[in-house]
Amino acid sequence: MDISRPYGELVKDFLNTHKYQEADVNGTHFHYLLCGKGTTTLVLLVGGMGLSYMYMPYIKALEADYRILTFEYPYVCTDNRKLADGISALLRFLNIDSGILIGSSYGGYVAQIFARKYKEQTAGMCLFSTAGLSEKTISQLKARYEKIAPKLFWVLKHVPYSWLKPSMIRMCMRHAENVSKEEYAYIKDMFRYIYIDYTRELDIHMTELLFDLTNQTPCTADEFEYLKDRVLLILPENDDSFTPEMQQDLTDLMPECTIVEGIDSGHISTMIEVDRYVEEIKRFAESV
Q1: Cα(108)–Cα(224) distance, rounded to whole angstroms?
Q2: 109, 160, 200, 227 — which has fewest CB within 10 A?
């Protein structure tokens, strides 16, 4: 992965060679990218920022061997059940029978919600820097979010968004503690670029989806029994977004899953250890 160039240049080059398309599927508008080649489709589910181009280093590394689909989460999908239904409809619209779901952080939750309802469309799952939607984890999320949710939504809706962006960047940079000086500079440049055009509307939308996780019916291990030997978990150490207990809940939900250890750069590892993640994705996809 090239971290020597400005992040904005990398995004511009990527978007010049990877053309997004638009589709209205059952009343849901998708801005999506379908690229690559191969018999296996990887469905990349973005995290809490909601920006699919953040997967660009993965797409560039994987598209020679795999068909890749990624997209933003449509605004009309105001909760995670609607989002899962919309993703299912998009796969049918694109004539994709099934795919390997790759979800990082919030995207890992989306993968679980989708996989337990749309088994026939789920060939496997790769879940990174995330947690299980177990009863215990949902209770922890409720305890964390219920009191702050009303205040946060008020701030997002009423405070000038330009005033909030510097604080947002500082919050994002808290994830970059166990990285090199060069990696820190790359991550900071990335978030500064992202927040140039990041909108209040997108922030509110993603926050609504995140808080809606507390309304989900808890997942159980038997719901994922059909994915035996078809789940890859990479759960970094020092992840300040997900406690070891939340990570263990995810491991307990996934029967006979493949677990990759030895990554200690925390929640931001998916953005700076791309080569390692790509290697594990390829190894896993070849075994499914």
Answers
A1: 14
A2: 160
Question: Up-side HSE of residue 205: CA atoms within 13 Å toward CB?
Answer: 17
pLDDT in tens, the chain (288 residues): 678 899 999 999 999 999 999 999 999 999 999 999 999 999 999 999 999 999 999 999 999 999 999 999 999 999 999 999 999 999 999 999 999 999 999 999 999 999 999 999 999 999 999 999 999 999 999 998 888 999 999 999 999 999 999 999 999 999 887 889 999 999 999 999 999 999 999 999 999 999 999 999 999 999 999 999 999 999 998 888 898 899 999 999 998 999 998 888 889 999 999 999 999 999 999 998
Smallest CA-to-CA distance from 281 within 35, 14, 42, 33 is with 42
Q: Please provide residue 125's backbone torsions phi and psi, each rounded to the nearest 5 degrees.
A: -140, 140
| Torsions phi, psi for 64 (to 5 deg) | -70, -25
Give one word for 6, left, alpha or beta, with left for phi > 0 and alpha for psi -120 to 50: beta
Other CB atoms within a 10 A radius of the CB of residue 218 amount to 15
Coil, helix or strand at residue 137: helix
Evaluate if pTM is beyond 0.70: yes
Smallest CA-to-CA distance from 107 within 136, 124, 129 is with 129
